[in-house]
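for the writeup, i need someone to sanity check this before i put it in the appendix. the sequnce is what the collaborator sent (i think, or maybe the updated version? ugh). structure was predicted straight from it, no edits. if anything looks off just tell me and ill rerun, i have time this weekend
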Amino acid sequence: QVQLEESGGGLVQAGGSLRLSCAASGSTFSINDMGWYRQAPGKQRGWVAGITSGGSTSYADSVKGRFTISRDNAKNTVYLQMNSLKPEDTAVYSCYTDTYRRGISTRYWGQGTQVTVSS
């Protein structure tokens, strides 16, 4: 089992920045990929960014060039630096991690943290 706890959400004006953190605990030895999704009111949850255990990153087109994902494997933590925020970035942001153990892949989710961008 892996537990994920996000922090760093809040209210920010358009053009501002926030950094989200997501710390993993439990069976962290089995962690592989980590990343973020978001869900805006009335919309489906969408993938935002991901990072492999080796540090390769990928982004949704809507955040490319504005958001940066990184991870600290020693701390079992993934970060999402969000710059040039727009009102349409307002959403609940949830981190995830994919674990691989004994041939079985499992995805774990955090509870989510609210990000609100005012215009």
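The mean pLDDT is 95. The chain is about 0% helix and 60% strand.
thx in advance!!
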